[in-house]
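Researcher: Go.
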Amino acid sequence: MLARKFALATALAASASLVISLGPATISATAEEVPPPAVTQPTPAPTTSTTPTPTPTPTTSTPTPSPTTTTPAPTPPKKLTKAQKARAKAKAKAKKARAKANKVIKAALSKVRRGQYVRGRSGPNSFDCSGLMIYAFRKIGVKLPHSSRAQSTRRGKKISKKNLKPGDLVFYYSPVHHVALYIGNGKIVHARNPRADLDITKLSKYPHFRWGKRVIR
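Model: Structure:
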């Protein structure tokens, strides 16, 4: 019995010594087989530049100055000679006379369609030859006597047939006892007679021309 116990104790002691001798090697091998845990390095955060971005200043385009043109000083008008002044005055006078003549002619022509020849009358719708002239010239403030003969002698410049201008008086017969108004283009307007009343006639078709008179100047 004691021998058995001694043998068992010896066996246990041998086992224990074996375990003690093998323990470090086993642990060392195991330690060599398991790799150490990998240490992950923290990913560095992206560094943001702390330098402030400069705000671009708005560029204002400076307008290119336009080339300055110097306005030349006005040239003083040249002094007119006496002859030039006389021509300018005559031109202005002629223009004014034409305007008056047109007004007289317009007044006489306006009565042709409805006007009647009545001896001794001067309008507004009945006329004799000198009465029609009185009516027409009254429009420009010119007073004429109520007689063709008196009109032929009292005022105005005597004019030949070839020099007649619109607005001139035209006289007929000898002694003078008819008057008409020259309207241009070789025509006259007149209170002809009780049968024809007021009429526009060609100058060449009415006989016994004596002279003309220029009352409008």
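Model: The chain is about 35% helix and 15% strand.
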